[in-house]
Amino acid sequence: MAAPPPRRLFRAVAAPRRRSGRKRRPGAPRGGGEQGGADGPPRPAPPRRRAASSSSGLAPPSRADRASSGPLIRSLGPTPSTWLSRDITREHSILGMFSELKFPVPWGHVAAKAWGPSEGYPVLCLHGWLDNANTFDKLIPLLPRDRYYVAMDFSGHGLSSHRPAGSPYHFLDYVSDVRRVAAALQWRRFTLMGHSMGGCVAGMFCFLYPEMVDKLILLENLGFLLGPEDTEAWLKSKRMVIDRLLSLEAKQQTPKARSPEAALQRLLEANRHLTAEGGAILLQRGATETPAGLVYNRDMRVHMQSRESFTVEQCVKLLQKIQDRVLIIIAQDGLLVPHNLDSTNHVVKALWEAFESTLKQHIQLVEVPGSHFVHLNEPEVVSGIIGNFLTAQNTRARL
């Protein structure tokens, strides 16, 4: 049975405007002189290229690397894999060539992968909790080819370094990761796209640095990590973060090694919205092959991250600051459709009501068939909607 068409909940995404002649890149200066200007970002500087490596992991940055202000390109080509089935690896290779990057930070590096021409208009892509940059592998090759897409791994995820010992993961740490990557790339203005928790990070970055973001795309996310309404529940959640961190440090457990099949099975059990193919793609970047088996790359401390709390009134006020430049895509079988929400999830339901009453005419929100990982499982369902939003010219030039 064919899937039903996407349902536009608020207002349709504007189709790209056709123009004759050579189109000026958004934010590009008119005429000669310095790149960039008051109306937009400079053209991103091409990353400094390094010799390709055949290793499937990222080596720690050298002393010279740490002193560099720009990203380092590790390799060009499909994600290396020695344990995935040939069919999955072959299909993954066809999706498009990309480059691996890493950005030196005080505790190691932030890893990323990039598609498209480095001179294209920049789009920074942010993955969800416990995921990695590979979550965009099937979507980005379907999007407009004149953009420069960079999908980063948050600290403690994918191929990025873990935070220093004794440090918990605070939500704002992920926001600072975004700021560091944007600074390393010398991006003054760009588009942000985030899935799930990555959408919350993207939303917070927009609220803190509105002058740096021209468009915001949220996949299965409303732009916030909403805290509990009850004061006692809020205090309990903060105490739990500290207690779990200390407990984890006391145990000093060695990461568990699993067979490729068991590692994939465990991932699918924890993510009922993932397909086997999608899970295998995430594991390509989310696990390291050792003599004993596959070991997940993620830092166990990300399970106890400290969140930022907002009231519904604060959420609405913040979203009003960036309205008319926001695209929200939710899946009919995802985590945010009102009729799927748990009866105790009062905060999200109240936010939905505020969307309907206050932001209805300004936020572009589309409901599509699919699950929480629709962008990975069935990217063609959302690629056209996102592509139109990226190329649309009839929205406000600034947030």
Task: Give the helix/strand layout.
Elements lengths: L6 E2 L39 E2 L13 H5 L4 E5 L9 H9 L4 E7 L2 E8 L5 E6 L20 E6 L18 H15 L4 E6 L1 H12 L4 E7 L11 H21 L5 E2 L1 H11 L5 H11 E4 L2 E4 L15 H10 L4 E6 L14 H13 L5 E5 L5 H4 L2 H12 L8
Parallel strand pairs: 2-3, 6-7, 6-8, 8-9, 9-13, 13-14
Antiparallel strand pairs: 1-14, 3-4, 4-5, 5-7, 10-12, 11-12
Helix pairs in contact: 3-4, 6-7
Keywords for this entry:
single chain, 399 residues, alpha/beta, eleven-stranded mixed beta sheet, three-stranded antiparallel beta sheet, 11 helices, 31% helix, disordered C terminus
Description of the structure:
This protein has helices at residues 63-67, 86-94, 171-185, 197-208, 231-251, 260-270, 276-286, 312-321, 346-358, 374-377, 380-391; strands spanning 7-8, 48-49, 72-76, 99-105, 108-115, 121-126, 147-152, 190-195, 213-219, 257-258, 287-290, 293-296, 326-331, 364-368. The chain is α/β, with parallel strands linked by helices. Helix 3 crosses helix 4.
